[in-house]
Design brief:
With 339 residues, the chain is an alpha+beta fold. 35% of the residues lie in helices and 29% in strands. The mean pLDDT is 97.
């Protein structure tokens, strides 16, 4: 494999097609590895999480064929060490990884670590890779390559990342969860439907309304004090950009529940690879008596089953409601290599 460094996203344009083709066959194909998403992340450094840093995107080729990508950036990590992190780290990109086909991954990771020893690269001390799914094939490859060079490797569980494998039928899905919770979901949905109030559930499809709908979603998010603190001006810019990216990439699922003509709850999801990836949510607390968050989630699960989606991925966080809806546990990890 021949390795090279790309230091500006503008220089990636010739790789647009090969990147997309490689991602289609990637061992870890997630929306956060899309080139356009990572470029969006880079424009605000994750909504202001990081100060400006050095982009070091490593591309590996065999002949004319792109076989591996490691989207990295160089900065001081949280511990103050000079580090190479995955672009997208840490707070706003739920799943990250390198990009390679399963059959190429071990050789790519071994070659990558060899290449990263080049004196032409910044003087990093640690590969600090967050938000990798615990079953990623990158982890054993990274451990083997690191130990082969006499470097240290560690991997620790970072967060829960529960998901619901979907059967493709609403009633079958309900039958598979706890009886008490099944009754609770049905009761709450029925209570709103029988309230006599005008109720509407819709997904944003009109490009002319996108900015206004995105702002309405952020307003619902901001009713939660923790989320309000999270939504700094730079983070708001990032969130608007992500919504625009997902809309343009035809994978946006921005869904609202309206009660009496007012937005009561919303979910910002990605509909990608025949899976639903739950990115964030918001609700108007004045409608709490109708459990709008639960009700909208029920409608979205109903829609996902009817659409034969394979999985409903809640991504990071171990909030109780996820398990009440039948989610099963999975974890992301933090892998690090010290040289």
């Amino acid at each position: 494999m021949e390795f090279k460094i790309i230091t500006h996203f503008e220089d990636l344009d010739p790789l647009a097609g090969p990147w997309d083709a490689l991602l289609e066959e990637c061992a870890s194909h997630v929306p956060f590895l899309r080139r356009e998403y990572l470029r969006t992340w880079w424009q605000t450094m994750g909504g202001g999480e990081w100060k400006p840093a050095d982009l070091l995107l490593v591309a590996a080729s065999e002949g004319e064929k792109l076989v591996g990508l490691a989207p990295l950036f160089f900065t001081d990590n949280r511990e103050g060490e000079p580090a190479l992190l995955l672009v997208g780290s840490i707070e706003v990109s739920d799943y990250l990884d390198v990009i390679a086909r399963p059959q190429d991954l071990p050789a790519f990771v071994t070659g990558l670590l060899d290449f990263l020893q080049s004196p032409a690269l910044p003087p990093w001390k640690v590969l600090d890779w967050y938000n990798i799914l615990e079953d990623s094939q990158t982890l054993p490859a990274l451990e083997s390559a690191a130990l082969g060079l006499g470097w240290s490797y560690s991997c620790v569980r970072l967060q829960h990342s529960p998901h619901i494998p979907l059967p493709g039928d609403w009633e079958t899905y309900l039958a598979g969860i706890d009886k008490k919770q099944r009754h609770e979901i049905r009761r709450k949905m029925r209570r709103l439907e029988e309230s006599g109030l005008p109720v509407r559930v819709y997904m944003v499809e009109d490009p002319a309304a996108l900015e206004a709908e995105a702002e309405a979603f952020l307003a619902l998010m901001a009713q939660d004090p923790e989320k309000a603190a999270f939504l700094t001006p730079t983070m708001r810019e990032f969130m608007h950009s992500v919504i625009r990216w997902a809309f343009d990439a035809h994978c946006l699922q921005l869904a609202f529940l309206e009660i009496s003509g007012e937005k009561a709850a919303a979910y910002l999801n990605f509909n990608y690879l025949n899976r639903i990836w739950v990115y964030n949510s918001g609700l108007d607390r004045k409608f709490n008596e109708y459990s709008p968050g639960w009700v909208l989630l029920g409608y979205l699960l109903q829609w996902a089953n009817a659409s034969h989606a394979l999985d409903f991925d809640f991504m990071r966080g171990d909030e109780e409601y996820k398990y009440r809806f039948g989610a099963v546990n999975r974890f992301i990890v933090h892998a690090s290599v010290h040289r």
